[in-house]
From TrEMBL:
Pathway: Pyrimidine metabolism; UMP biosynthesis via de novo pathway; UMP from orotate: step 2/2. CDD domains: OMP_decarboxylase_like (cd04725). PROSITE patterns: OMPDECASE. It catalyses: orotidine 5'-phosphate + H(+) = UMP + CO2. The gene is pyrF. It comes from Streptomyces gamaensis. SUPFAM superfamilies: Ribulose-phoshate binding barrel. This is Orotidine 5'-phosphate decarboxylase. NCBIfam families: pyrF_sub2 (TIGR02127). It holds the Pfam family OMPdecase. Residues 24-273 form the Orotidine 5'-phosphate decarboxylase domain. HAMAP family: OMPdecase_type2.
Length: 292
């Protein structure tokens, strides 16, 4: 762990700086079998390693955030996790923030172990942030929230996801009339209270949800980052962000995966694709902020 005598810079501050200097964009590292095939790679550890190394080489010095999806590495066992460990270390060394997309959620000592796996600086998979699921109760996330605060890392909590099945849980109403998603966002707002320039506790909110956000009674102003999957291949565009996120649009971290990764294995094409999306998002956000 980080020595107590040293206070690490909070993730929210580091993320804001990265977004301001590199552009507000997160690119996923999703080496699923069909994408490996599109790149002309074999669906094995060798193909996984070539794919991952190419993405990191192309983008880690350019984008604000890289988001490896752990499942696509775990399916190859220990050798796949070794590829992931190297990717995380190489990406962070090149200046990208690494968001581990693991969607962990459990209780007690098990949640603490998950938190240690990704948020303890001594861990092989130490990342700048991790995705977590609150659906065993928001309080079950406390070990991850506390370790994130101590280590200067962040968490992104599933709140309003873009998959259609999510609504049956996330839009469900509690006894007080508030939705489950709205309650998650309220908890995050409390975690981020007083943080500047931005809190370290984020929410995952689909960029494709549009008007359905209103049905969930969602107030997205949580003083923290909003990871927004759905840009590109899933149909949302940068121009949609102000309409979906309103006054919170400056805190949005759009996630793009296939729309950038399909440019590989050509490194120049990967870089050009990421730059184009980052420019489109920056322009949309700046126009929305200027318009008030």
């Amino acid at each position: 762990m980080t020595p107590q005598s040293q206070t690490p810079e909070p993730f929210g501050a580091r993320l804001r700086r990265a977004m301001d200097t590199r552009g507000p964009l997160c690119v996923g590292i999703d080496p699923h079998a069909s994408l490996l095939a599109d790149w002309g790679l074999s669906d094995d550890v060798a193909g996984l390693e070539r794919f991952t190394h190419t993405v990191v080489e192309a983008l880690a010095g350019q984008v604000a955030v890289l988001k490896p999806q752990s499942a696509f590495f775990e399916r190859f066992g220990s050798r796949g996790l070794a590829v992931l460990e190297r990717a995380v270390a190489d990406a962070r060394e090149a200046g990208a923030l690494v968001l581990m997309d693991a969607k962990r959620g459990d209780i007690g000592s098990t949640m603490a172990a998950y938190a240690s796996a990704y948020l303890d600086p001594a861990a092989p998979l130490f990342s700048d942030a991790v995705t977590v699921s609150p659906y065993l109760g928001y309080g079950s996330l406390r070990p991850a929230l506390e370790l994130a605060r101590a280590s200067g890392t962040g968490v992104f909590v599933l709140a309003l996801t873009s998959n259609p099945e999510g609504a049956e849980v996330q839009h469900a109403l509690r006894a007080d009339g508030s939705s489950v998603a709205a309650t998650v966002l309220e908890h995050l707002r409390a975690e981020n209270a007083g943080a500047a320039p931005m809190g370290s506790y984020g929410a995952v909110v689909g960029a494709t949800l549009g008007d359905t956000l209103g049905a969930a009674g969602a107030d997205l102003a949580i003083n923290g980052p909003l990871l927004a999957p759905g840009i590109g291949a899933q149909g949302a565009t940068a121009a949609d962000l102000p309409k979906v996120f309103g006054a919170a649009v400056r805190d949005v971290v759009p996630n793009v995966s296939r729309a950038v990764l399909r440019g590989g294995p050509d490194i120049a094409a990967l870089r050009a694709g990421a730059a184009r999306f980052a420019d489109e998002v920056r322009e949309a956000v700046e126009s929305a902020v200027a318009a008030g």
